[in-house]
Design goal:
The complex is a heterodimer.
Chain A (H helix, E strand, L loop, with lengths): L25 E6 L9 E6 L4 E8 L4 H4 L6 E6 L2 E2 L5 H10 L2 E8 L1 H6 L14
Antiparallel strand pairs in A: 1-6, 2-3, 3-4, 4-5, 4-6
Chain B lengths: L2 E2 L26 H7 L7 H18 L5 E2 L17 H10 L42 H7 L5 H34 L14 H25 L12 H27 L6 H28 L6 E7 L5 E6 L4 H15 L35 H57 L9 H22 L8 H13 L4 H9 L18 E4 L12 E6 L2 E9 L24 E3 L1
Antiparallel strand pairs in B: 1-2, 3-4, 3-7, 5-6, 6-7
The chains are: A alpha+beta, B alpha+beta.
Chain lengths: 128, 575
């Protein structure tokens, strides 16, 4: 909508983008030789915190970063195992045990921010 | 209903208060309202007039601002459940009726005052004492004054109900004794062998006397006291109990006369004593009923009453039991004298030092030339000026109150310092032996009073408490505090704390008259949604009743096994 004065149109703003491709789900496959090799990211969250599994830090100059994984990515499934309602320890075990990992991730900064919320109510639904 | 509010006066600068010659006594004083509520037994008509004059002078001195309300009632007796009755008409009937409506409640008196011609609206001569909106009427004073003349009528009215009940109770108490004694006193001729009293009869007589003693003690403990309030309508429970007593006693006497005095030959003394003992039992049970109805029934709280005081908006909530409206009013008054702060009419407007300067009024800015040059400077000046005006108009109250509180605190601090210093003087006089003559507390009070007089007077002046405390009262209070070794702060408490109404010495009258206004009949029990109003001079207490909600308490079980906790640390794990 147009407004008089110095207010810029929303669509003319440099940061405007209606491209939602960045939020779509994508599949990333990671392969490593040994199970003890680090995958290159930190995860956060879990069922006990009523949220999903999110990436909180990606080690620079590693395979994970080159594949497009970044902070605020939510892991939706790993090798077919659903990661939306899984405990933290189980998720870590699954990730560490396999040498070939096929992850379905999506960029979800809203849910990631919620994992930092101080007040966690038992009645809050999980952000799926 | 009509309200009239006069112009807001301004207080003079610090120093003596000088009456402002231009201000008019604000408001319309409804003298009938005044007179009816000052139903003090020792006020005669003349003193009411003087009281009015004095009140007027006081008003001019302190520039009291009041809003008067033309009320519909005159005394407690005349208010009844007539919600559809137009209020204004009732007052005019009262004044026009020239005292004809004297204590009769509920009658509409038709008085032909207005001349029956076509232009009656032009030259109406209604006989009222009010010739203009701003004058007080003294005619109403004389009219009403005839009703509540002296203390005799009022005292009679005050004790009438209790006296009647006491009479009936005395009659009932003495009848068993009389019934037992009459055969013995040879009033009626009974054969001597009929009058023999064997052991069973003796036992009955002993129990009879003990029961009478218990009855006497119980009545003395509960009922022998000053009536708390004179109420406009009859006190139903008390009347019920009295009637029961009377009916019982009367029927017993009837039986006595018929059965015993008629059949003198077959009667035995034992049966007479049985009869008297049964009467005493019946009286004891009636006393039990009286205790329940008069004392116990209203103790469990069933309603909440909100008491709101009108001129200053102070309110309290209380729990009250099941009572009639008039008894609830007496109960509320008890709590009022105990809990509410003293109402200071001179503190209705926050006293400010400066006169209201004319720049506070809202000016309208007109741009005459209509030219746009120098728009920046014009608009900025106009904006700031208007903003300041708007701010000062809205914040005026806030800043004034803030300033006032600051001044009060300053003077209070000085007062406390002066008092402490004065009290140290008197202590030293006690310790010094032989240097000065010993004084009794009153003289000691007089000797140290000058050193704190000035600070005290300034504090009283700023909190507008001067009319409440005379120098004699201050000196006597000081003497009492010195005699009992009270600290200076304890002495000052009387002037610093205005908390219960009874702190005001002027309220220690024997009789306090209040007017009660209610839509429903005064002896009906209160119910949720009942509203009644108590009035006395300036103060107006609006009481509204609401139910205490019924509490539904259900048990909730928390299983101890579910009382487990886990640590939730949102930790990161590197994978």
């Amino acid at each position: 909508m147009k407004r008089s004065g110095g207010i810029v149109n929303r669509s003319n703003h440099p940061a405007y983008s209606n491209n939602l491709d960045q939020f779509a789900m994508r599949t990333v496959t990671l392969v490593r030789e040994k199970a003890s090799d680090p995958l290159g990211f930190n995860i956060r969250g879990g069922m006990e915190h009523f949220c999903g599994i999110y990436l909180s830090k990606v080690t620079p100059n590693m395979e994970a970063e080159r594949l497009g994984l970044k902070e605020s990515d939510q892991i939706l499934s790993v090798n077919g195992i659903d990661f939306e309602d899984i405990e933290h320890n189980k998720a870590v075990k699954i990730l560490k045990s396999n040498t070939q990992i096929q992850m379905k991730v999506r960029f979800f900064p809203y849910g990631y921010k919620k994992t930092y919320d101080k007040v966690q109510n038992a009645n809050v639904g999980t952000p799926a | 209903m009509s309200f009239s509010v006069g112009p807001g006066p301004s207080y003079a600068t610090a120093g003596a208060w000088t009456p402002d010659q231009d201000s008019v006594v604000s408001g319309f004083t409804d003298a009938s309202l005044y007179a009816s509520l000052q139903r003090h037994p020792q006020y005669s008509q003349q003193s009411q007039y003087q009281y009015h004059q004095q009140q007027q002078q006081q008003q001019q001195q302190y520039q009291h601002q009041q809003a008067r309300q033309k009320a519909s009632f005159v005394s407690l007796r005349n208010v009844n459940a007539r919600p559809l009755h137009k209020r204004g008409r009732r007052v005019s009937e009262m004044t026009a009726g020239a005292g004809g409506d004297g204590g009769m409640g509920g009658e509409v008196i038709e008085v032909q005052i207005l001349p029956q011609d076509d232009n009656w609206g032009d030259n109406t001569t209604a006989i009222t004492g009010n010739t203009s909106v701003r004058s007080e009427s003294f005619q109403d004073v004389t009219i009403i004054g005839r009703d509540q003349e002296t203390g005799v009528t009022f005292t009679c009215q005050r004790y009438a109900g209790s006296a009647l009940c006491a009479l009936v109770a005395l009659f009932a108490f003495l009848s068993p004794i009389a019934m037992v004694l009459i055969p013995r006193l040879n009033v009626i001729q009974l054969k001597s062998e009929h009058l023999k009293c064997d052991s069973e009869c003796d036992g009955l007589l002993i129990s009879f006397s003990f029961k009478l003693l218990i009855l006497l003690l119980g009545s003395w403990a509960l009922f022998f006291r000053q009536p708390k309030a004179t109420m406009p309508r009859i006190f139903i429970f008390r009347a019920l109990v009295t009637m029961l007593i009377f009916v019982f006693t009367f029927s017993y006497w009837l039986f006595y006369v018929v059965r015993i005095l008629e059949n003198r030959d077959e009667v035995r003394y034992r049966s007479i004593v049985y009869f008297a003992v049964s009467l005493v039992d019946a009286l004891l049970f009636i006393q039990y009923l009286a205790v329940i109805l008069l004392e116990l029934r209203h103790l469990t709280p069933q309603y909440m009453v909100k008491v709101l005081r009108s001129p200053d908006g102070e309110s309290r909530w209380y729990n009250i039991g099941q009572l009639s409206v008039q008894r609830a009013a007496a109960w509320v008054l008890e709590k009022y004298y105990q809990d509410f702060t003293i109402y200071n009419p001179y503190l209705d407007r926050v006293p400010s030092k400066k006169k209201p300067h004319p720049s506070n009024s809202s000016f309208k800015y007109y741009d005459v030339d209509g030219n746009e040059e120098n728009p920046e400077s014009h608009t900025r000046a106009m904006l700031t000026a208007s903003a300041r005006r708007r701010d000062s108009a809205h914040n005026e109250r806030f800043y004034e109150e803030h300033e006032y509180e600051r001044r009060v605190r300053k003077r209070k601090a000085r007062l406390i310092t002066a008092a402490e210093e004065a009290f140290t003087h008197i202590k030293r006089m006690h310790d010094d032996q032989g240097q000065s003559t010993p004084m009794n507390p009153h003289e000691a009070a007089q000797s140290i009073f000058p050193s704190l007089a000035r600070a005290l007077q300034k504090y009283l002046r700023i909190t507008r408490q001067q009319p409440r405390h005379t120098m004699d009262s201050i000196l006597s209070h000081l003497a009492i505090c010195l005699a009992h070794d009270m600290s200076p702060r304890a002495f000052l408490e009387k002037y610093l704390v205005s908390s219960p109404v009874m702190q005001n010495d002027k309220e220690h009258r024997g009789v306090q008259s209040w007017g009660l206004v209610c839509d429903q009949l005064l002896s009906r029990p209160i119910n949720g949604g009942t509203i009644f109003q108590l009035r006395q001079a300036d103060v107006c207490l609006l009481c509204s009743i609401s139910h205490i909600p019924h509490f539904s308490i259900a048990e909730e079980i928390i299983h101890p096994k579910s009382n487990k906790f886990v640590l939730r640390l949102n930790s990161e794990t590197s994978v």
